[in-house]
């Protein structure tokens, strides 16, 4: 069955790698994730956002995730699979996911005042641990939009708060803000420099803050949200096949590799998958205007997504051969 994240995080922190946390909203995304993880022998965290629940129905998503455990075995290798609520914003939502059979939840109280965040997170932890469900909390606010919550600027995690927060709440992992953000436009062009090809180069992540956090809570599992790299070659395929993505810029993969070697043991990637699927679909439909069977364009999109995930696992996160 599904597992919680406790053992996976312990091994990842000790081993200097990160577990992939990939979002899914439909069958093709799930197939791509599971087959990529089976082929690379990687553990995986399947993430469901509130938006995913609204789009696809939580009962269907839960049963897809449960089916994924068997599907992986059918593909030839048993991998640990976590079903995780991404960016839960209330106790009731977390409770409902736990009742449904999720093995892990995030309670994102990062936009609340500190004391309120502590109180809400502790409440979720107390309930979740009765069912052996692991809980991710968050300190610091990422720039950009997460579901309904949005912030124009980054509020970096304050290292002086982390020890008190994990002690008072009992959380199993902590998401931090060190300069990543959600979506495909992570930085404003004026924050970046341009290389000779005109590609926007973002400012580096705040590894100084990460190191300070690691000193305060040594070995404690850290989570990085907003970790898509927004590959320029995918943006190019989209835009040369009728798309119009402007000023798209993400986190360079060498920085994520560095983060994965630290106490960062869960890295969240959604936007890069969206870009890979969209690029494949736009290209296919552009080249095959006579086709109208969804399997004809969703098939290549699923294949492109699987290749992207394998690349992330092997070349960025280092979670291959850890299952
Ligand atoms: O945190 C954001 C994730 O990429 C999920 O996005 O809320 O549009 O499903 P979503
Ligand atoms: P990206 O938008 O960078 O893929 O981040 C996804 C995420 O953090 C989901 O929680
Ligand atoms: Na790590
Ligand atoms: Zn996130």
Automatic annotation (TrEMBL):
Entry annotation: catalytic residues: 86 (proton donor)
One GO BP on record is:
glycolytic process
How is the co-factor bound, per the entry?
Binds 2 Zn(2+) ions per subunit. One is catalytic and the other provides a structural contribution.
Q: Which residues bind Zn(2+) 2?
A: 108, 138
Checking NCBIfam families in the record gives: cbbA, fruc_bis_ald, PRK07084.1
GO terms assigned for molecular function: fructose-bisphosphate aldolase activity; zinc ion binding
Q: Which reaction does it catalyse?
A: beta-D-fructose 1,6-bisphosphate = D-glyceraldehyde 3-phosphate + dihydroxyacetone phosphate
**What UniProt keywords are attached to this protein's entry?**
Glycolysis, Lyase, Metal-binding, Zinc
PROSITE patterns linked: ALDOLASE_CLASS_II_1
Enzyme class, top EC level, equals: lyase
- Cofactor(s) listed: Zn(2+)
Q: Which organism is it from?
A: Melioribacter roseus (strain DSM 23840 / JCM 17771 / VKM B-2668 / P3M-2)
- The residues the record assigns to binding Zn(2+) 1 are 87, 182, 225
Alphabetical list of PANTHER family matching this protein? D-TAGATOSE-1,6-BISPHOSPHATE ALDOLASE, D-TAGATOSE-1,6-BISPHOSPHATE ALDOLASE SUBUNIT GATY-RELATED
Q: Which family does it belong to?
A: Belongs to the class II fructose-bisphosphate aldolase family.
Q: In which pathway does it act?
A: Carbohydrate degradation; glycolysis; D-glyceraldehyde 3-phosphate and glycerone phosphate from D-glucose: step 4/4
Q: What does this gene product do? A: Catalyzes the aldol condensation of dihydroxyacetone phosphate (DHAP or glycerone-phosphate) with glyceraldehyde 3-phosphate (G3P) to form fructose 1,6-bisphosphate (FBP) in gluconeogenesis and the reverse reaction in glycolysis.
> Under what name is this protein listed?
fructose-bisphosphate aldolase
Q: Which InterPro entries does this entry report, sorted A to Z?
A: Aldolase_TIM, Class_II_FBP_aldolase, FBA_II, Fruc_bis_ald_class-2
